[in-house]
Design brief:
The chain contains 2 helices and no strands. It starts with a helix and ends in a 13-residue tail after the last helix. It is mainly alpha-helical.
């Protein structure tokens, strides 16, 4: 029973840490563009200094 006095604060602190990391990612613009990365794979980018065939 005494282990609960340790595990409950640790789990609350861990959950608060995950929330803070998620909020930092949202504010940093991590989730702004969800569409273009999946399409960017399909198109070739021009490489500077090389001729493409």
């Amino acid at each position: 029973m005494s282990v609960l006095y340790i595990l409950i604060p640790v789990s609350i602190a861990l959950a608060a840490g995950f929330v803070l990391v998620c909020l930092a990612a949202i504010r940093g613009g991590q989730f702004d563009d969800l569409e273009s990365p999946r399409w960017r794979v399909l198109f070739d980018e021009k490489v500077q200094g090389r001729k493409q065939k």
